[in-house]
Sequence to fold (64 residues):
Amino acid sequence: MNRKTFCTVAGAIFALVAVFHLIRILADWHITIEHWSVPNSVSWVALVVAGGLALFGFRFGAED
Fold:
């Protein structure tokens, strides 16, 4: 697998993760781990991080 393919696939995976976090925020899904209820602010942070990584992946995949 070359660098361009790797970056594009990684960008697509991170974009999918970002979309799922956005859906969790909009649908107001509640996640509980043990006795801890995960706040939506965690998904906001994860959305920004995953979206940024997806952007970098697509950008680096587009370079020659």
